[in-house]
Every structure is written in C-alpha cells, then in structure tokens.
Amino acid sequence: MSEINKIFILGGAGFFGYHTIKEAIKRDYAVKTVDIVALSDDLKFNDEGKVEFIVQNFFALADKEIVDLIRGCDGFVYAGGVDDRIVPKKPARKFFYDTNVLATARIARLAKEAGVRNFVLFGSYTSEFAEENDYLRENNYQQEAYVETRLLQEKAAMYAGEGSMNVSVLRLPYIFGTMQGKVPTTSMYVDMLRGQEFMPVTTGGFATITANQVGESAISALENGEHRKTYAPATGYISYEDFYKKILKELGQTETTKLQVMTFDELEEAYKEDEKLTDTQGIEHGIRQVNMLRANSMELKLPTDDAYERLRVNKEDTEKIIDETIKASNTRN
C-alpha cells in the first residue's frame, strides 16, 4: 500500500470527480481540485481545511503553472476526458486523440514533474473488451477510433510515469448515481423512449457500477500504487431490455410502448444505413454504428473481483440506485 498525503483531483465539479472527492475526505485525505466551473453552494464541502477548490481552465495553463498547482500532492486522479457519446466531425480518430491521448500524456508528464507518486486515470471498459473479447476483436472493435485512442491514452499515461510515478487505470463501465444540479447521462435514453409507441431493443446488456463505488475505486487504486495496472471494476449487470423497462415504468408507458427485442442480424442493415447517413453529414462515431450494435447485442458482463477484492468497494443497492438515476433523468415529470 502506498502512503498518500494529499490528492489532486482534476475535474472536481464533475460527476466522477465530485464522488471521488467525497471518498477522499471520508478516508481523511487532503484534496486539491480544479475545474472550469465552481460547485454550487449546496454541494460545497464543509471542511474547507480538507478541500482546496480552484476554478480555472486547467488545460489552458502553461506547463509551469500546472506543475506549480500540482506540487505538494503525491496522488493524482484524472477524472477528465470525453466519451463516445460525442460524435465529432471526421476524422473521429483525430478528435479523440487530441482530447484524450495528448491531453492525458501532457498532464501525466507534468504530474510526475511536480512530484506525484501515484496517478489514476479514469478510462473506459471498452478497453477491457477490446483486449479480452475474441469475437469483438475478430471484428476489429479494438481499431475503432474511440476504443483505439482509449487504449493509447492508457499507454501514454503509463509511459509518462515511468521511473518515479505509478500509473493505474480504472476501465469504468456504465455508472449510475445522482448529483444535485446535474442531469444524469441516462436522460438520453429517457428522452429517446418518451412518447414512443414502439422501440426495438438489442439482445445484450452492460456491466454497471455506482458513482460512490467509482470514488472508492479511485482512492483504493491510488492506495494500491501499482504501476501499469488496469482495473475493470463492476458491481452489477443489466440487460438493455430490463433497463428500458425501468425507463418505461418511470415514464408511465409500460402499457403504451411496445419493446421488441431484436438480434444483431435483424438490426444490422438499419445500422449500416445510419453509418452511410453520418458519413454524408461529415461526422463520425467513435465506435461505428455496426460495431456498436455488435457490442450492444452481447452480454458485456465483468467479474466483480476487481471491485470488491482489489479495490475494496462497499456493496450498494444497485437496483435502487438505477431507479433513482432514471427518475433524476426524467426532467419533464
């Protein structure tokens, strides 16, 4: 176990960063955090002596300014970056490379220069399946722009740490939880189903974790202090069909919306057409539509060993938290 005194958390006003700060305080660590926006008064931490919150465009600072901000912290949690919900202009590979890989490599290098000994990167569980799932690999899932750059992001951070800074990665699955003043990402599913009479649903499902457990995982990974270690923490699983049913229940549409479970083969042509459409619009998904469908048609479960044994997260009522998240996502109720 590594000895840590003070933790720098990038993105403290964000969903992940906020829950990581909460866990750091619970374990009696001092925290310095920076974000481009401030926390609302309702969310500010009472123990000002434990949390130093700086409102600043961190990435716009010069290298020396960043090093000076980080200096004095021996732990660092990188809770920034963009995920595959963003659909950029073509080529998607350049967008995700610039925003995730280059930015992470720079900050990891400067964190090491500032004296950080343990660095945790929030990554994506797409990296886990890109390495471990033979069927997805046979279909070049690992070469999709978002997935490939997520893997490269991990390596960039690890190489930056060589010599004196341990770098580990949390390959996070779908995260459920709430934060006052923020609409959960689940809202895009709620809005998609709202008012619909018919909705196709894929045959697969996805691994889950709660926001509190993400915070616990991050601080435990710092404490573990293992270089080049990747964790895929998950504490649950839900099928898309059951997830959609929960949303329909929240919307009061269980009797008016027909869900039709459809296989990959049944949906493939529609997704190919959507790929052509986005191509003509000059935009590109980080994971192309057919491979996204392929993944969404699989039961993408993860073992719970990383979460419960290696990262020592506490058990929570996941079903209840999923329901609470969906309720918070229904902004028109």
Overall mean pLDDT = 95
Estimated helix fraction: 40-55%
CATH homology superfamily name of the domain at 6-176 and 208-234 and 301-314? NAD(P)-binding Rossmann-like Domain
Instruction: Report strand %.
Output: 15-25%
Distance between the termini: 47 Å
Q: Uncertain regions: pLDDT < 50 for 5+ in a row?
A: none
**Rough shape?**
globular
Rg measurement, Å = 20 Å
Architecture of the domain at 6-176 and 208-234 and 301-314, according to CATH?
A: 3-Layer(aba) Sandwich
Look at the structure and give the CATH class of the domain at 6-176 and 208-234 and 301-314.
Alpha Beta
The total strand number stands at 13
**SSE pattern:** EHEEHEHEHHHEEHEEHEEHEHHEHH
Descriptive key words:
single chain; 333 residues; alpha/beta; Rossmann fold; seven-stranded parallel sheet; four-stranded mixed sheet; 13 helices; 44% helix; 19% strand; globular
Secondary structure elements and their pairing?
Blueprint: E1 6-10, H1 15-26, E2 30-35, E3 51-55, H2 63-70, E4 75-78, H3 92-113, E5 118-124, H4 125-132, H5 134-138, H6 145-161, E6 166-172, E7 174-176, H7 187-193, E8 198-202, E9 205-210, H8 211-224, E10 229-231, E11 236-239, H9 240-251, E12 258-262, H10 264-280, H11 289-296, E13 299-300, H12 305-310, H13 318-329
Parallel strand pairs: 1-2, 1-4, 2-3, 4-5, 5-6, 6-10, 7-9, 8-12, 9-13
Antiparallel strand pairs: 9-11
